[in-house]
Amino acid sequence: MKMQASEKQRSFVREALPHTDLLYNYALRMTNNPADADDLVQETYLKAYRFWDTYEQGTNIRAWLFRILKNSYINRYRKEVREPEKVEYDDVKSLYTTRVEGTADQYNLQESMLGNLLDDEISGAIASLPDEFRTVVILCDIEALTYEEVATFMECPLGTVRSRLHRGRKILRGRLTEYARQRGLAQEK
Questions:
Q1: How far apart, in whole angstroms, are the C-alpha atoms of residue 166 and residue 162?
Q2: What is the pLDDT of residues 22-38, one digit of tens each?
Q3: Residue 168's domain is classified under what CATH number?
Q4: Fewest Cβ atoms nearer than 10 Å: which of 13, 28, 136, 139?
Q5: Which of these, 5, 18, 11, lies nearest to 55 by C-alpha position?
Q6: Residue numbers of the domain that contains 10
Q7: How do residues 37-90 score in pLDDT, each as one tens digit?
Q8: How far apart, in whole angstroms, are the C-alpha atoms of residue 150 and residue 140?
Q9: In whole angstroms, what is the distance from residue 16 CA to residue 46 CA?
Q10: Buried b (16+ CB within 10 A) or exposed e, 62-85
Q11: Would residue 74 count as lying in a domain?
């Protein structure tokens, strides 16, 4: 049974759009870049709307959207690996002009300041986790998805989610113990 266009649109807006923030937060953690995260979420919603007729109403919408997002991210990553990085002539010209004019120091200052903002120990510890642990930790502990939702998203058994979460937390605990002590969040042994 095909939906009418207006019915499809209302249904999509009602069920899928409330999860935008959740998808964006996860995309941001995957890409570490707000613009890339925006693009990934937009691509996810475009695909979701395109295939809305295949979504089974009443099933887990978040898991369905996360699967689309994850597959889009993987496809994008594969494409980037296959294609060499492209450089625009205007970018090279601009960089050259900046360096020639002696304003490169200001650029380097901005770069180092932004780098320090992104060099958060917690984010770094999470980012350094192996993919399967990082995904489970982010989805369970940060995004507050249920184990069942994560299992559906990752297409693995519930026990695997619990195991990966336990192991991921254990790795994080080891990497962040000194950080917690320095901030008075952990007791000295």
A1: 6
A2: 999 888 888 888 999 99
A3: 1.10.10.10
A4: 13
A5: 11
A6: 5-82
A7: 999 999 999 999 999 988 888 888 988 998 899 888 888 766 765 655 555 656
A8: 7
A9: 11
A10: bbbbbbbbbebbeeeeeeeeeeee
A11: yes
- How big is the chain by its Cα radius of gyration, in Å? 21
Of 70, 14, 16, which Cα lies nearest the Cα of 40? Answer: 70
> Per-residue DSSP letters for 127-183?
HTS-HHHHHHHIIIIIS---HHHHHHHHTS-HHHHHHHHHHHHHHHHHHHHHHHHHT
Q: Could you give the number of structural domains in the chain?
A: 2
Is the separation of the CB atoms in 149 and 62 below 8 Å?
yes
CATH of the domain at 57: 1.10.1740.10
> By C-alpha distance, which of 168, 167, 147, 145 is closest to 156?
147
Which residue reads 């695997």 in tokens? 160
C-alpha angle 131-52-45 in degrees, rounded to nearest 5:
50
d(CA 55, CA 173): 39
